[in-house]
Write a structure and sequence with these properties.
Protein name: Amidohydrolase family protein
Domain Amidohydrolase-related: 42-324
Largest sheet: 7 strands, mixed
Oligomer: single chain
Order of helices and strands: EEEEEHEHEEEHEHEHEHEHHHHHEEE
Shape: globular
Distance between the termini: 16 Å
CATH superfamily of the largest domain: Metal-dependent hydrolases
Structural class: alpha/beta
Bound molecules: zinc ion
Number of domains: 2
Strand content: 15-25%
Helix content: 25-40%
Radius of gyration: 20 Å
GO molecular function: hydrolase activity, acting on carbon-nitrogen (but not peptide) bonds
């Protein structure tokens, strides 16, 4: 049976009636009877986490399909109906990709590390031919590849010319490039190369902000993960550099927004289904609350090529009692979750 929902539709802020027709929505009352499942409150295009890595228990480097299923279910049950995975330890099981209760998934393949970086981690795929592998990963997945612009924040990053060649190659293949950056030089190189998203951006130099705006590079600071790490950083010279980089990235969130950069919500850490926390960090960093909510909903969906709540759009809807633009904490308590036209809650 079709579902009927009525409430204030965001981001427009207009009270409307909408119905589901299969996995789509319509604002035209269907001929067939419909069950009213929400009357009042605020209707959002389903939440989005654009930086999450489900599929491994704890610190394991082995992809476990059962763990993956559990972790995407945790996202879904929190109202996160679309996910981008900038690096996964394995391939999304085919049965889960289009399962009626699975969030939408945008994959980017593995974490690609250029062999010239001074260090890499066990979960990285190290390669001499970053361009070829990046193009292959973007083609084999959902149009995205994920690479390291740097790794050790005290060591040299990937040369900008190489990153530029990757960007040119991936763009020519119709794909997009997400770059992990956690050093000032790494961020600057990625910004100069015109990658599509900078992930983390620790130590981001001021000069990067204008370059990102000019190139249309989005910023995914993953503040939740850094806030979790901060208390564990040692109080030594390296640790002080880390904290300085952390303070800088927080400052750049607002500066990036002011410059016209799209800032997006990604958690990069457990617990899964925690994008509401990232919204709160973005607000604390100075984003207007409406922008921060959009960073985990309508803006993020547009970034991923998914529709918002428009005629004929995908029926992914979360409903809240309070206006999340005024009370962002309400994002933790969806009253109703509809995914692919089906009721999750
Ligand atoms: Zn990550």
């Amino acid at each position: 049976m079709a579902l009927h929902l009525r409430g204030t539709v965001l981001p427009d802020g207009v009270v409307r009636d909408l119905w589901t027709l299969g996995d789509r929505i319509t604002f035209q009352r269907p001929a067939a009877p419909a069950a009213t499942v929400a009357d009042g409150g605020f209707l959002l295009p389903g939440l989005v986490d654009v930086h999450t890595h489900p599929g491994a228990a704890g610190d394991s480097l082995v992809f476990d399909p059962d763990v993956f299923a559990e972790q995407i279910a945790a996202h879904r049950d929190a109202g996160t109906t679309a996910l981008r995975f900038p690096g996964l330890l394995g391939e999304v099981p085919a049965a889960l990709r289009d399962a009626p209760d699975s969030p939408r998934m945008i994959t980017a393949g593995r974490w690609l590390a250029w062999a010239g970086l001074s260090k890499s981690a066990g979960f990285h795929t190290v390669t001499d031919d970053l361009v070829a592998l990046a193009v292959a990963e973007a083609k084999a997945h959902d149009g995205w590849c994920k690479l390291l612009g740097d790794w050790d924040f005290e060591a040299a990053p990937v040369p900008c010319e190489l990153l530029r060649a990757v960007v040119d190659g991936v763009h020519a293949a119709g794909g997009r490039v997400a770059a992990h950056c956690q050093s000032a030089e790494g961020v600057l190189g990625a910004a100069r190369a015109g990658v599509d998203s900078i992930e983390h951006g620790m130590g981001m130099p001021e000069e990067s902000v204008g370059l990102m705006a000019a190139h249309g590079t989005s910023y995914v600071p993953t503040l939740t993960a850094f806030a979790r790490s901060a208390p564990r950083i040692k109080d030594n010279a390296r640790g002080r550099l880390w904290h300085e980089g952390h303070r800088t990235m927080i400052r750049r969130v607002r500066e990036a927004y002011d410059a016209g950069v799209t800032v997006l919500a990604g958690t990069d850490s457990a617990p899964f289904g925690n994008v509401a926390t990232e919204v709160e960090h973005l607000i604390a960093a100075g984003l207007p609350p409406e922008t921060a909510v959009g960073a985990a909903s309508w803006t993020a969906r547009t970034f991923l090529g998914l529709p918002t709540l428009t005629e004929g759009a995908l029926a992914d809807i979360t409903v809240y009692d309070a206006d999340p633009r005024l009370e962002p904490g309400t994002l933790r308590h969806p009253r109703r979750i509809v995914l692919r036209g089906r009721i999750v809650r």
